[in-house]
Amino acid sequence: METARTRPVSDYNSKLKLKGFNAFQIGGDSNATRIYSRKDFYKICLSTGTSIIHYADRSFVAEGTVLFFGNPRVPYSWETVSSTCVGYACLFSEEFLNVSERADMLQQSPFFKIGGTPILNITEQQKDFLATIFLKMMEEQEGEYAYKDDLVRSYINLIMHEAMKLQPTESYDQHKNAASRITSVFLDLLERQFPVESPDKPLQLRSPQDYAQNLSLHINYLNRAVKEVTGKPTTAHIAERIINEARALLQHTDWNIADIAYALGFEYPSYFNNYFKRLTGTNPMSLRTAEV
């Protein structure tokens, strides 16, 4: 059996990661509203149909045309109710927008901010205007204009400016089973930290407090919900996922132990070695040697 040393990604993912941006039309079958959920891309979606959008611990009823802002740091899912859901979407990385001097809009926007409201109800006139911007982005990404990335960034900023003029929707409900929803959101966010694809991009969320802050929850509330639903504390879920990723990196990459330790959020390799041995009964190098 051939041992892989790198993690394969699809052609679609590779192109998106290379360019840092992609705009596309949502087809009538509604599948495009949920085909992409990578943790490192923001999403803006103009959608017409009836859907229920689950965002962190809230659920939004989206009827008619809505403008949705997806933050990769907040787990969300899209449940289509109507038979069709059409519109446009664009995905972009933080690095793509950071070239712009106005990139701080991303963090300051109430739509991308943790705990913000990411959905706007859109009138027919606003829909026509926003659809034109999405079409322009789709046209530019296929063109040969030397400064098309700058132009696309301007279009993204224009959408965000237009959105900030509007009132966010208040059509949302807390999940009927709050503990279940909070646990689902936590586990989704935990999984979004993986796979670790580069030592240069270490884990950002290591502790229950990190997850609670990202979800705008009190740490006690998160811990109580996770323990109630799964029977295991939040720390146990995090530790298990980190150990599983450590095993994968040891077995399927040629990174040295120091790189793996840093990628998993450990300041020193010795801390990683002790952590790994305490939870698995063996040390990282022994596991790697055994796999050779």
From TrEMBL:
<keyword id="KW-0805">Transcription regulation</keyword>
<keyword id="KW-0238">DNA-binding</keyword>
<keyword id="KW-0804">Transcription</keyword>
<dbReference type="GO" id="GO:0043565">
    <property type="term" value="F:sequence-specific DNA binding"/>
</dbReference>
<dbReference type="GO" id="GO:0003700">
    <property type="term" value="F:DNA-binding transcription factor activity"/>
</dbReference>
<protein>
    <submittedName>
        <fullName>Transcriptional regulator</fullName>
    </submittedName>
</protein>
<dbReference type="InterPro" id="IPR018060">
    <property type="entry name" value="HTH_AraC"/>
</dbReference>
<feature type="domain" description="HTH araC/xylS-type">
    <location>
        <begin position="180"/>
        <end position="290"/>
    </location>
</feature>
<dbReference type="Pfam" id="PF12833">
    <property type="entry name" value="HTH_18"/>
</dbReference>
<dbReference type="InterPro" id="IPR009057">
    <property type="entry name" value="Homeodomain-like_sf"/>
</dbReference>
